[in-house]
Design goal:
95 residues; mainly alpha; globular
Length: 95
Amino acid sequence: IGAVPPLMLKTADNPDGIPMDVFDDFRRQLSDNRASFFLDVPSGPFFGFNRDHVETVEAMVHNWWRQGMMGSAKAHYDCIAAFSETDFTEDLKAL
């Protein structure tokens, strides 16, 4: 299980982060075929169904798809930048 904070993106200050091309690929997939994107993500990494000996729970995948298709395509596209590129380091220090 992972979390967004303090920063997901690989930067000079966060060398162990995820490269930007991963998030660019998410945006490309979302733009190319939104319906497939909302089936592919939960079928694999999001719920961990891509791990050995884990069975996909189709109801969870379909519910994720339903929620995704109800949302704004632009909001979803912008959300990828929000969760991947926002640096929460200073916010977390204030807690």
